[in-house]
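step 4 of 6: structure.
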Amino acid sequence: MNPYLLVDFGSTYTKLTAVDLEGEYIIGTAKAPTTVETNVLDGYDRAFKYLINDHPEIKEISGISACSSAAGGLKMAAIGLVEELTVEAAKRACLGAGAIVKKIYSHHMTKHEARELSEADIDIVLLAGGTNGGNKECILHNARKLKEINIDVPVIIAGNKDATDEIEELFEGTGIEYVIVKNVMPQLKKLNVKEAKFAIRKIFIEKIIEAKGIKKAEEKIGEIIMPTPEAVLQAAELLSEGFEDEEGYGELIVVDIGGATTDVHTIGEGFPKRTEVILKGLEEPFAKRTVEGDLGMRYSANALLGNVSNYEFKKYFEEDDKCNHNIEASLERRAKNVDFIPETKDEEEFDKAIAKICCDISMSRHVGHVEVVHTPLGNMYYQTGKDLSGIRYVIGTGGVLINNKEAKKILKQVNKKSNKILELRPTNPSILLDKSYILSGMGLLSQKYPKLALKLMKQYLM
Amino acid sequence: MNTVVIGVIGADVHAVGNKIIDYVLTEQGFNVVNIGVLSSQEDFINAAIETDAKAILVSSLYGHGEMDCRFFKEKCEEAGLGHVKLYVGGNIVVGKQDFGEVEKRFKTMGFDRVYPPGQKIEHALCDLREDLGT
């Protein structure tokens, strides 16, 4: 036996997964509440004790990898020029690196916006704007605004390269921490987020972990190598593409319904499938992640009625559900008491309805849309976003979802719907569940042992 | 290097002329941002903002250009692109109309240069050099 440990410092739980590198199986998993306020290692030690209690056969650990979304995760601000272009590119870089985009600014930042940014609770700023050789006046203006507020979090500059010298001069000697990387949109509608994502991860490892009080953990377990959502995205990418002779599952979707947000990851090109469809808008990343801050089971439960009306909400209840749910009160209860666990059948049914809404609406926002244009040559179609109609697998993860008895039914909400005919949703994918909560762990494991991580995912996702 | 945005407006899918314009202008030293066919006014404007374009060249071959180009100039003004030169060319109106009249109408709409059907791109190139002072 050669046990390897994967650690995920989550916002609520610290989760451990022990993998046997030799026997190629998952020995066991354990979790304990995350303890960022005191010493993050307390929670880890407790989880580790549970793990050893359950699996006394673990004598020695050969290695550990860890990721974290504790203390609110990685929070970023994205700044660009045009909303549909560099702002969107900047946003995608942040999301792809596993961050939550808390603040978004387009065009010239005003004094008011700059003040708002300086007071916001964010960890990193991503400053973009202009294609290479394009507009540089706007990014310079916004850089000056960042200087004016003496921005005290690291700034990643990923805009028009023609402006970088001047920004560097501007920031020199001010004490502002900054790094210059390649433009997130070097040419019109061309997305290039690789370097920016890498810079985000580097700052996360070097600075953010410390600021969030998770650094202490490193004494014991070594470097925390990425934010949890990035680990999930990497696991999904591996599962889709395969590794060497171990085949992958092809294009797939991962839906993570959490307490505060619903994350959707898709791996796949999503190109139009018919010749009369023309692709519009910014290029889509192969591995795409979107995060919906207003769709969640607990923290953001109150925001749900901003997305669906009371009448629409009722449509998500099962037909045989005879309970007369008080929607407002039930949502309020969950938002106020975020540790709420359903006890009665009615409470479970209500949770199921929330999960369905989160799943359905997050899909609507993630998936590509078509629009009909009537031309003298007949009907043509614009496609914005990814065509996911050919997706073969949908994988569900997240505490509330995988503990629900009817999780697969909830995930069916991603499917094509008669009332959302213009959305390019999956038609009839196979649905898998991350029952043992291993996705982030497998993302970590894939850094060193991709083939094993892939094999385990194929074995344990069902 | 001067950047120009080119594209075919509206529900028009005629791509050949668009490719010729792209080829000639690139060869003549312009940085050409080609947004292609089926482009909306907003597509032209957003592209021009991000790339800091000096001129927008709108093509239309299917006869509905006049409708597609309405309020284009006003939108440019609104987006802070009042200084950007606006060209239009192709079969820009329905049927055979007196081109002098057509040109007048489009100039009133705020276009700087208006070209009749069959116009060579070299002609527009001279105008472009003159307008941009290169």
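step 5 of 6: annotate
 - The longest helix of chain B spans residues 16-27.
 - The CA atoms of residues 6 and 99 of chain B lie 22 Å apart.
step 6 of 6: archive
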